[in-house]
């Protein structure tokens, strides 16, 4: 059910909960209320009305934070969303046109974008992983892209498998090359000690700058 209070659309979901729960979602400022099944609509509306100043404050906060720009391999694009028959994403000079089948939930949109980024990243890994394997003579057994939010890459030195973060697809290629080299070097040096730094220096003298830029 959706109601409107002070011009703000509010989605109300009846749930087997004991208390009312109000959330203002980032980044779109959508307002959602989970309400116990037995509570009357009037009681819910009274509750929301009492919180309206807080809701407005939250929504203003989100408006001031622009959504992260849409970036592909380090290049920012202006994202335009349109409706169509088939999901697709087409890049032109500085614009990314995202066509979404309707109806499309936020989760479906996220899933489509994840798969799209995965294809972009896979193509680059297939170029740069063999490149750095050839340069270093270090070879991994297998690799995989993973939707990791807190790490750019990881490596299992025993199985020689490398994982690369899906989010590298948004970063410049220098970042992907750095992470690939970083994980390959772990096949020779498992820790981040002196030998690790020395090997990184030998193959990629500017790696510290790239690392700093990625995590800053
Ligand atoms: Zn490491």
Total of helices: 6
**What series of H and E elements makes up the topology?**
EEEEHHEEEEHEEEHHH
Query: Biggest sheet: strands, sense, closure?
Result: 4 strands, mixed
Any idea of the CATH topology of the largest domain? Zincin-like
Q: In terms of per-residue confidence, which ranges show pLDDT below 50 for 5 or more consecutive residues?
A: none
Counting helices, strands and paired strands, the structural category is alpha/beta
Which architecture of the largest domain per CATH? 2-Layer Sandwich
Specify Rg, calculated over alpha carbons: 23 Å
Q: Please list the strands of the largest sheet in the order they lie side by side.
A: 1-2-4-3
Mean pLDDT: 92
Number of domain units: 3
Characterization of the model:
There is one protein chain. With 216 residues, the chain is of the alpha/beta class. It folds into three domains: 2-64, no CATH class; 70-114, no CATH class; 120-215, 2-Layer Sandwich (Zincin-like), CATH 3.30.2010.10. The chain is built from six helices and eleven strands. It has a four-stranded mixed beta sheet, covered by helices on one side. Strands 5-6-8-7 form a four-stranded mixed beta sheet, with helices on one face. A three-stranded mixed beta sheet has the order 9-11-10, covered by helices on one side. Helix 3 (106-136) crosses helix 4 and helix 4 packs across helix 5. The longest helix has 31 residues, at 106-136. It is elongated and about 70 Å long. The chain starts with a strand and ends with a helix. 18% of the residues are buried. The structure holds zinc ion. Residues 182, 186, 192 line the site of zinc ion.
